[in-house]
Amino acid sequence: MLYLRGMNSFYSGCVTIISALVLLLAVQCDSPADIQPPEIAVIQPKPGDSFNVYDTLLFSFHALSDYNLLQVNAVLVDDEGQSVIRLNVPLEGSSVSLDAIPLILSRKDLPTGMYDLEFTVTDTYGTAAVVVPVMIYALDLHTKNRYLISHTSHNQTDIHI
Description:
This protein is α+β, with helices and mostly antiparallel strands. The chain folds into 2 domains: about 1-30; about 40-145, Immunoglobulin-like (Sandwich), CATH 2.60.40. About 15% of the residues lie in helices and about 45% in strands. The longest helix has 27 residues, at about 1-30. The protein is elongated, with a radius of gyration of 27 Å. The termini are far apart. About 15% of the residues are buried.
């Protein structure tokens, strides 16, 4: 009798553990049909906007998800599909709006042409992407120097070559 009581106890413990695991998995896992990718709406730049090399391209967007948003990647891609400039911005929350995030077109060797600006938003369970085509103009080959003039709040002007 003691042996059977021990076995019943053993089986009862196993059933309890298995039930707890099944319940835990059911609570933590959404079915694949329930999981939706995040939504992203690019406000700026608009398709076909044009920029010059060394410009600061400002982008703005709104992202929304049922889950926690983790990051947005902004990637400038050339016509051969190669990533030429990349920026990663960490996100937090399920609804995020970012305004005027700078992406500096810092590669002086970019040729004139159409580029795709790809935005990829990642949340806890997936990703969504939006592509905005933009025009980038190369530096004039006759331009030897490019000047950057900046003004500070202390009435000081800096000139960089």
